């Protein structure tokens, strides 16, 4: 059975008129997973459980009691807790850890009868932009298996790209939903910080972490957001903003003002075909009557350093809990308390995670706190204010999602800073806590997907989603 649905509404009508069943859908996706195991997308497939869940959903559909996501087969990133299932964050330190509770989002998805087919490979503790930092190995891009999937939600992106599920859930701290979405030709939405509960999501950098979606359509991103968003007493950072109906109406939008980064077109670091994709989008938008203007952003050079200082500082604190005592990996070579800490962490964490813990600890240390951490907090405030000011004048900011399309696996940069700079376009929304979406805009001459990003005001997902839907059809 080939599974080619571009949106859940097609699946829903197929289920309702009896053309398909949830069970056959699950079988189709499982088949696709088996055929493409070498892509290394899943850390675990819940085959029997998903099949049983599908049977139960089919019964509910017959009885007329099925939820909003009945028969939507989804995959979750392996940093999202699901009761009685393993959750590893693709790290050796949690390799055998089983979650004793479910995240709020998993509960909400299941309550609407979504079927969870498995947990996806990702960068270790969501640190990375290529999925090459996973303890379980890199995820391969379905468009070209010699290329990376992007990261850190690489498995989630390829699962959707290769039709191993209908949609996937990822997390985005500095671009981890949007960038793999761009590399894999799917839609990647990071909502406003505080829109979706983080309860039960393994923390990386708590003031940035946000759950996001990887889908074939904007409509599905809206539907999943609707189900997951909103108040949750277990996450005190969650916003009390009311959750509107995120329906995508498909109407022609009013004339918009859109800014694009001049530097994205002039910088030698941006790939030529990425630039021409941006130019083409600008021309189409102008031709349809929108005002599209180049801008320069004064703090452009500070985006990546500010993000990394703060993300690493928060990570060093969040990851202190993996101590070889409470849970997770404990070194068999430990002889006393101190060696338990030292060896469990040294053996359990990968290279990049250790690098970040050390740098994060450094920027928080008494002697350097003011020079790095406190300074970066101030710069974050400036970036946020300046971005919000721009969004007073403009409805959206348009950028490439990433400076390049998916690069070759194993082309690891000797200098990690070069890798960090690939996040230049995605971290602005993360630093400012704003919603942003990566939209697939076709392939380059080598057949590799390209993505463009739209960023908008806090809590303006309805406008962002509606404009995205229109933009994709332009
Ligand atoms: N590439 C960025 C980082 O490594 C973003 C990762 C993410 O959003 N989880 O921190």
Secondary-structure blueprint:
Elements: H1 8-16, H2 22-35, E1 42-45, H3 47-63, E2 73-77, H4 104-111, E3 115-120, E4 140-141, E5 144-148, H5 154-161, E6 167-172, H6 178-184, E7 187-190, E8 210-215, H7 218-228, E9 257-261, H8 262-266, H9 272-287, E10 291-295, H10 300-318, H11 337-348, H12 351-364, H13 370-393, E11 396-400, H14 416-421, H15 427-432, E12 436-443, E13 449-455, H16 461-473
Parallel strand pairs: 2-3, 2-6, 9-10, 9-11
Antiparallel strand pairs: 1-3, 4-5, 6-8, 7-8, 7-12, 11-13, 12-13
Helix pairs in contact: 2-3, 5-6, 7-16, 10-12, 10-13
Bound molecules: glutamine.
Residues 126-129, 152, 172-176, 204, 311, 423 line the site of glutamine.
Task: Give a verbal description of the structure.
This protein is an alpha/beta fold and 474 residues long. The chain has a single domain, classed as Alpha-Beta Complex (Amidase signature (AS) enzymes). The protein contains 16 helices and 13 strands. The chain has helices spanning 8-16, 22-35, 47-63, 104-111, 154-161, 178-184, 218-228, 262-266, 272-287, 300-318, 337-348, 351-364, 370-393, 416-421, 427-432, 461-473; strands spanning 42-45, 73-77, 115-120, 140-141, 144-148, 167-172, 187-190, 210-215, 257-261, 291-295, 396-400, 436-443, 449-455. The strands form 2 sheets. Strands 1-3-2-6-8-7-12-13-11-9-10 form an 11-stranded mixed β-sheet, with helices on both faces. The chain has a two-stranded antiparallel ribbon with strand order 4-5. Helix 4 (104-111) links the parallel strand 2 (73-77) and strand 3. Helix 7 (218-228) packs antiparallel against helix 16 (461-473) and helix 10 packs across helix 12. The longest helix is centred in the last third of the chain and has 24 residues, at 370-393. It is globular and about 65 Å long. It starts with 7 loop residues before the first helix and ends with a helix. The mean pLDDT is 97.
């Amino acid at each position: 059975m080939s599974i080619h649905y571009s949106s859940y509404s097609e699946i829903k009508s197929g289920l309702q008129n009896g053309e398909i069943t949830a069970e056959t859908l699950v079988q189709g996706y499982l088949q696709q997973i088996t055929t493409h195991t070498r892509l290394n997308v899943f850390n675990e497939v819940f085959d029997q459980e998903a099949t049983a869940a599908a049977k139960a959903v089919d019964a509910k559909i017959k009885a007329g009691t099925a939820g909003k996501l009945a028969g939507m087969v989804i995959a979750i990133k392996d940093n999202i807790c699901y009761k009685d299932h393993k959750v590893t964050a693709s790290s050796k330190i949690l390799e055998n850890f089983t979650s004793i509770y479910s995240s709020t989002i998993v509960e909400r998805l299941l309550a609407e009868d979504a079927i969870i087919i498995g947990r996806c490979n990702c960068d270790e503790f969501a640190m990375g932009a290529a999925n090459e930092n996973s303890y379980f190995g890199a995820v391969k891009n379905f468009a070209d298996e010699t290329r990376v999937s992007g990261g850190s939600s690489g498995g989630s992106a390829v699962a959707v790209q290769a039709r191993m599920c209908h949609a996937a859930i990822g997390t985005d701290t500095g671009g981890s939903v949007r960038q793999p979405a761009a590399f894999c030709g799917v839609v990647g939405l990071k909502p406003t910080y505080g829109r979706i509960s983080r309860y039960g999501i393994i923390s990386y950098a708590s003031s940035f972490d946000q759950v996001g979606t990887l889908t074939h359509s904007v409509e599905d991103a809206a539907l999943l957001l609707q189900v997951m968003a909103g108040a949750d007493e277990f996450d005190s950072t969650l916003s009390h903003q009311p959750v509107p109906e995120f329906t995508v109406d498909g109407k022609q939008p009013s004339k918009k003002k859109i800014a694009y980064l001049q530097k994205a077109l002039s910088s030698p670091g941006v790939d030529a075909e990425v630039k021409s994709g941006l130019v083409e989008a600008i021309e189409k938008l102008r031709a349809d009557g929108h005002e599209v203007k180049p801008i320069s952003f004064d703090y452009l050079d500070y985006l990546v350093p500010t993000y990394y200082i703060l993300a690493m500082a928060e990570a060093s604190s969040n990851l202190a809990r993996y101590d070889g005592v409470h849970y997770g990996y404990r070194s068999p070579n430990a002889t006393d308390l101190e060696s338990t800490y030292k060896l469990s962490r040294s053996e359990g964490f990968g290279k990049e995670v250790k690098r970040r813990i050390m740098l994060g600890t450094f920027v928080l240390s008494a002697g350097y706190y003011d020079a790095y951490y406190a300074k970066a907090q101030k710069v974050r405030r400036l970036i946020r204010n300046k971005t919000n000011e721009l969004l007073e004048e403009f409805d959206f900011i348009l950028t490439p999602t990433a400076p390049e399309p998916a690069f070759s696996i194993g082309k690891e940069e000797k200098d990690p800073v070069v890798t960090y700079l690939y996040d230049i376009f995605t971290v602005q929304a993360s630093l400012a806590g704003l919603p942003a979406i990566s939209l697939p805009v076709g392939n380059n001459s080598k057949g590799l997907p390209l993505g463009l990003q739209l960023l908008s005001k806090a809590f303006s997902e309805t406008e962002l989603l509606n404009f995205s839907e229109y933009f994709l059809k332009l």
